């Protein structure tokens, strides 16, 4: 009987000490880590959503081009409405690329590899420069699509697709950056 009582007492003391240690040391660290991991995923989700917005707005701008001034199928009211929509879409592109550049440290820094971090920062920088440039609107849209497609696939595509297109995406991205850098900004 005294051995059983002693065993129970040791078990209770061990359980209390373990519970206190976990409650005082482990749980706060896990809660802090949970918050940081949540912030990282939120930043990555915002990065992905911003790239999808750029892709969708560029697609809209390509699909709904300005009608010619002498096109009889377009009334002045419809011309004005389309012009307003296109201006709104360009405002969305401006806001999206500004967000990318302003928040690059938050989302790019969430990846562990320096090469991936630089890839995200290069994308944000060049996308913003394209929007700010004095290029024709059609050229801006083409360049934004050429920049965004490979980056979007490398960060958010399926692992099979990322691996399969890794070298082609990086090459296409580098070629687009070379095209942007080599071309006068007021073409």
Give the SSE layout.
Layout: H1 2-63, H2 76-102, H3 104-108, H4 114-132, H5 137-156, H6 159-182
Helix pairs in contact: 1-2, 1-5, 2-4, 4-5, 5-6
Give structural notes:
- It is a single chain.
- The protein is mainly alpha-helical.
- The protein has six helices and no strands.
- The protein has helices at residues 2-63, 76-102, 104-108, 114-132, 137-156, 159-182.
- Helix 1 (2-63) runs antiparallel to helix 5.
- It is elongated.
Offer a concise description of the structure.
With 187 residues, the protein is mainly α.
Keywords:
mainly alpha; 84% helix; 0% strand
- Which percent bin holds the helix content? over 70%
What is the string of SSEs from the N terminus onward?
Answer: HHHHHH
* Radius of gyration, whole Å: 26 Å
- C-alpha geometry: elongated
The percentage of residues in β strands lies in: under 5%
Largest beta sheet, briefly?
none
Low-pLDDT stretches are none
The number of helices is: 6
Query: How many beta-strand segments?
Result: 0
- N/C terminus separation: 94 Å
Mean pLDDT: 86
Derived structural class: mainly alpha
